[in-house]
Amino acid sequence: MDTRKRKAQLRARIQQARREMTADEIQHEDSSIIAHTAALLRSMSPSETSVAAYSPLPGEPGGQLLLDALHGEASSLLLPICLPGNILDWAQYQGRLALNPGVLGIAEPASPRLGPEAISSCRLILIPALGVSPEGIRMGKGGGYYDRALAQLTKLADPPRTAVLVYNGEIRSDVPTEDHDAAVDMAITPSGIRTFH
């Protein structure tokens, strides 16, 4: 079976497992992820707490309280805006009331767009994922938005740290990888933070 089919099957299995979590399990795991993420930000110097994150969809790690928790800890919080060609633009998060539905149903900031290169001003990038390998290779939903966004960071002399937010059991040795798949520095899970490099 080719890599794309294996990815599609694993994505379906992980999404099904997430749907089967109880409301209490989700609340507990999301709260733990938020607590570990906030602790990570508090461990960084204030000048290092410029963050790019994402608006979690229902069932994605972090849940509804993630953005406000990050907003309270970060000196700056950017969220993505999906553009044609699977490119991400970025804009400042200014609270839940300043979010609009985006083209993919993902909440996007109504504040001015800063351009795709704005992500390079951040020191920490929090990335959605369905799974991550023990070597830190992220598996997303297959759109390639984040692979493209992260590829531009490899040219920086001092690139930001990157982290995926995943539930327990989603760091998996069976994550299929392709050459274009971006590696991340760490995974933030309900059990804690795992560093890959």
TrEMBL record:
Where ATP binds, per the record, is at: 7-11, 138-146
Is NAD one of the keywords? no
Q: What is its EC number?
A: 6.3.3.2
Its protein name is 5-formyltetrahydrofolate cyclo-ligase
* Signal peptide coordinates: none
Q: Which UniProt keywords apply?
A: ATP-binding, Ligase, Magnesium, Metal-binding, Nucleotide-binding
Similarity section: Belongs to the 5-formyltetrahydrofolate cyclo-ligase family.
Which NCBIfam families would you find in this protein's record?
MTHFS_bact (TIGR02727)
Q: Name one Pfam family in it.
A: 5-FTHF_cyc-lig
Query: GO molecular function terms here?
Result: 5-formyltetrahydrofolate cyclo-ligase activity; ATP binding; metal ion binding
The record's catalysed reaction(s) read: (6S)-5-formyl-5,6,7,8-tetrahydrofolate + ATP = (6R)-5,10-methenyltetrahydrofolate + ADP + phosphate
Q: Which residues bind substrate?
A: 60
User: What processes in GO biological process is this protein linked to?
Assistant: folic acid-containing compound biosynthetic process; tetrahydrofolate interconversion
- Per the entry, which co-factors are needed? Mg(2+)
